Amino acid sequence: MLSIAVVEDNDDLRTAIVNALKGEGHHVVGFDCAEAIAEQGQALRIDLVVVDLNLPGEDGLSLTRRLRVTNPDIGIIMMTARTRSDDKRIGYESGADIYLPKPVSLEELTAAILALSRRLRPAAPAPTGLVLDTVRLTLVGPKGTIGLSAPEAALLAAFARAQDHRLETWQIIVVLEQGDRAPNRNALTVTMSRLSAKMRQCGGGAHPLRAIRNWGYQFCEPIILT
Fold first, then answer.
1. pLDDT along the chain (226 residues), means of 10
2. What Gene3D superfamilies does the annotation carry (predicted)?
């Protein structure tokens, strides 16, 4: 969803554009002149402006130049009846990202906004490591998603939060809720082996957990907690 300002002095056209873009899920505000957006737009966080060039008072070219100076990252789409090559050149030189000659269909305008939104709101990069969901008890990696038991999820979260991702044996036993009995190292070894296998299954490295002799374990994977 983008925050969009439509600057168009034709009331019917402005209303039609505002309603159409709202229907696409955007937050849209209409203005009938450049002076209105200058006065009221300060309180808005605007991602993109759709601007007509033939406006009363300050024209669209002047408004575009001013917006580009004050907000270099804003998206600007010009809509105008000026269709000569020189007009388009001046529009782009003034700071337009996209120049659409009128009449412009709503389909063409929404397609232009979608194209421009890829620059304004680029998709977040996919995580490169593992993602632990401590609520759903899942571990997500490059190869897919796998379910965890509650103790397994708690243990991975403890490793993720620990300094250098290291836990001593007694800390691991406490997390696994075995703190009221003598350490069962064989059972602990089986648990760590099973957890390592699950991490490899969803895309972790060959040795996600490293045993530290006479001390504990180190977690060797990048991980994100959600």
1. 93 95 93 86 80 93 92 93 92 95 92 90 64 91 90 92 91 74 72 91 89 91 87
2. 3.40.50.2300, Winged helix-like DNA-binding domain superfamily/Winged helix DNA-binding domain (1.10.10.10)
Q: Find the distance separating the first CA and the last CA of the chain, reported in whole Å.
A: 23
Q: For domain 130-225, give its CATH number from 1.10.10.10, 3.30.950.10, 1.10.3720.10, 3.30.429.10.
A: 1.10.10.10
Give backbone dihedrals phi and psi of 62, rounded to 5 degrees, phi first.
-65, -40
Q: Is the dihedral of CA 68, 69, 72, 74 positive or negative?
A: negative
Q: What is the largest CA-CA distance in the chain?
A: 85
Q: Model pTM?
A: 0.56
3-state secondary structure of 105: coil
Among 198, 168, 170, which Cα is nearest to 182's? 170
Q: Identify whether the C-beta of residue 38 lies closer than 8 Å to the C-beta of residue 127.
A: no
Which residue from 125, 137, 124, 131 is spatially nearest to 224, judged by alpha carbons? 131
Tokens, residue 173? 């036993």
Query: Do residues 42 and 70 touch, judged by C-beta distance below 8 A?
Result: no
Up-side HSE of residue 116: CA atoms within 13 Å toward CB? Answer: 24
Q: Looking at residue 174, what is its pLDDT?
A: 85
Residue 40: other Cβ atoms inside 10 A: 12
Token pair listed for 166 = 């290291």
